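A.,

Following up on our hallway conversation. Structure tokens first:
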């Protein structure tokens, strides 16, 4: 029987080395790390895990692991920055391109520790880089979006709040960065939970918006356009198959689908301009194409066109109608 003091630690993570990306690990091949067993609570499943803390390089700030290794393997992400280990992309961008949903990662506060504990059995013997396979076209999209070189600027010290107020008297001895960085809007409100689960991530939305513009899905200026035109649909394509091209939460935002069988096309109408732009970001990450099982040739997606105002017929003279 284990000692009484260790009863609460049974089943908790005890790792020897963290799962990190090249950027967070730093350019120095020799890194000194501090290890503390059960030193922190996982930001996702709330279970105690082994905390690692290290300095990535000279002039950089100390970094630490944020989530446990089980949660990192479930999403194939770095334990610190929560970016994909292979492509260095936010999970929202990667999952949109891979058409992944329902990966089993614990999201709700109820039983999320239990869900993570059960996932350990399925992940046993699985390396952190073992992830879902992608078709060649999707791999090319991910490679184009991915960062090829490590971005060590992410390891820089945080800005000094006293310097921004003009009150820092430590000079060169100050461990923080003496720069005034004004970050407002969505980028100033980044959440670890949103980054991990791939929802409402401002960094991911910025990447997806830039990619959608490159794929020809830039939002038109006319705010009344809330539909898409899908061409080259495979024979026998149904409305349900088109709806399945969006993740579960976004499917309910489709107001109607008008099938045009004579031209193998369809009009997809959304409930609002905001939901239509969200769909454009997802489809842009897939190369502005819809792929259907059993069909090699994908369908093409593009924004609809604005409706022309109906012409008013002229009133005949002498009709007795006053306009």
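Then the amino acids I'd put at each of the 323 positions:
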């Amino acid at each position: 029987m284990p000692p009484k003091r260790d009863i609460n630690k049974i089943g908790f993570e005890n790792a020897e080395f963290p799962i990190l990306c090249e950027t967070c690990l730093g350019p120095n091949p020799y890194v000194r790390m501090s290890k503390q067993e059960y030193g922190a609570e996982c930001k996702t499943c709330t279970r105690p895990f082994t905390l690692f803390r290290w300095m990535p390089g000279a002039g950089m700030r100390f970094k630490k692991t944020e989530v446990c290794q089980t949660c990192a393997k479930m999403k194939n992400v770095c334990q610190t920055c929560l970016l994909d280990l292979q492509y260095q992309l936010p999970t929202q961008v990667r999952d949109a391109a891979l058409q992944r949903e329902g990966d089993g990662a614990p999201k709700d506060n109820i039983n999320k520790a239990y869900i993570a504990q059960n996932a350990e059995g399925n992940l046993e013997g699985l390396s952190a880089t073992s992830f879902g396979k992608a078709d060649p076209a999707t791999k090319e999209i991910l490679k184009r979006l991915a960062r090829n070189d490590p971005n060590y600027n992410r390891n820089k010290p945080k800005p000094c709040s006293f310097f921004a107020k003009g009150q820092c008297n430590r000079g060169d001895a100050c461990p923080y960065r003496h720069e005034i960085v004004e970050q407002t809007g969505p980028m100033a409100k980044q959440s670890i939970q949103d980054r991990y689960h791939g929802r409402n991530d401002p960094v991911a939305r910025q990447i997806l918006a830039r990619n959608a513009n490159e794929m020809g899905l830039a939002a038109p200026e006319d705010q009344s356009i809330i539909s898409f035109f899908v061409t080259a649909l495979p024979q026998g394509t149904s409305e349900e198959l088109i709806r399945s091209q969006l993740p579960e939460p976004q499917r309910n935002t489709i107001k109607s689908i008008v099938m045009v069988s004579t031209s193998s096309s369809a009009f997809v109408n959304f409930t609002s301009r905001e939901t239509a732009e969200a769909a454009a970001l997802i489809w842009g990450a897939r190369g502005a194409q819809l792929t259907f099982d059993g069909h090699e040739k994908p369908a093409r997606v593009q924004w609809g066109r604005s409706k022309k105002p109906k012409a008013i017929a002229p009133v005949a003279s002498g009709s007795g109608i006053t306009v």
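The first helix runs from residue 22 to 25. Curious whether your intuition agrees with the design.

B.
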